[in-house]
Write a structure and sequence with these properties.
7 helices; single chain; binds magnesium ion; about 40% helix; globular; Phosphorylase Kinase, domain 1; binds adenosine-5'-triphosphate; Transferase(Phosphotransferase), domain 1; 2 domains; alpha+beta
């Protein structure tokens, strides 16, 4: 128990008591050994690297219980037909939000989309596969692909597989695509939703627009309508 107490001490005062307890629980269940360094403070979540064993890392994404825009989360969740009833309690909304991201990642993963493997979700905490070598893989915006055409084609393939799995990312951009050894990995599935969401196509069009706009700067000229079609017809062809 000594080692856990040691880890526990290092987490103290950084998180609220509830989050701290659950981090401790995940540690005692063996999901990771301790948090290492913060790599991103986002709008809603803080991201840390965590040690699992010598030389191996994981990512721990912690939704902040205090500063989340839970009303926006609520409105996104409400349009997702998979979420049957949502408790309007602020914390419950955040837990449902994290749980949905976890489920999205599992589904994408099962469909062979390049995403971080999700290992666990406990209330507002997600434990994910670390994408990177020693350092986390850079976001696409920070590492322009050496071969933009090839990278673009691979990214389109990921979008097609995702759509075929019945999901739309809904926040796809140069921020949520990592350039890992010159291949794309899709991250941040908190907004991803199922195709039967009435707003799914609107989200898909936005994703397509973001990607086409980014690659235009790299001299890849794609027609948005054409890309949209290729994602949507990919599904039909393969059934
Ligand atoms: N599995 C991972 N491996 C390596 N780096 C990651 C991983 N997940 C996230 N990151 C890094 O942390 C950053 C933030 O992660 P993410 O996009 O999931 O959260 P966010 O944008 O803060 O989320 P939200 O908008 O929900 O608050 C990413 O842009 C990326 O640089
Ligand atoms: Mg993000």
């Amino acid at each position: 128990m000594g080692i856990f107490r040691e880890k526990f001490k290092t987490l103290k005062n950084v998180f609220d008591l509830f989050t701290e307890r659950n981090l401790f629980k995940l540690i005692s269940q063996g999901y990771f050994e301790g948090l290492e360094s913060p790599i991103s403070i986002g709008k809603e979540a803080n991201i840390f690297t965590a040690k699992i064993k010598e030389g191996e890392k994981r990512i721990v994404k912690i939704y902040r219980l205090s500063t989340c825009d839970f009303m926006q989360m609520y409105s996104y969740l409400r349009s997702d037909p998979r979420i049957k009833k949502i408790n309007r309690n602020r914390r419950q909304i955040i837990f449902t939000w994290a749980q949905r991201e976890y489920r999205n990642l599992l589904k994408a993963r099962a469909a062979g989309v390049r995403v971080p493997t999700p290992f666990s979700c406990l209330y507002n905490i997600l434990v994910l596969e670390f994408i990177g070598d020693d350092d986390p893989a850079p976001q696409l915006k920070d590492k322009i692909p050496e071969n933009p055409f090839q990278f673009y084609n691979e990214l389109v393939e990921e979008m097609q597989k995702l759509y075929k799995a019945g999901l739309v990312h809904a926040d796809l951009s140069k921020f949520n695509v990592l350039n890992f050894q010159e291949h794309p990995v899709l991250i941040d599935f908190s907004q991803a939703t199922s195709l039967d969401n009435p707003r799914a196509i609107e989200y898909l069009k936005r994703d397509v627009h973001n990607i086409v706009t980014f690659f235009k700067k790299l001299n890849i000229y794609e027609d948005e309508e054409k890309l949209l079609k290729s994602i949507q017809t990919f599904k039909k062809k393969s059934f």
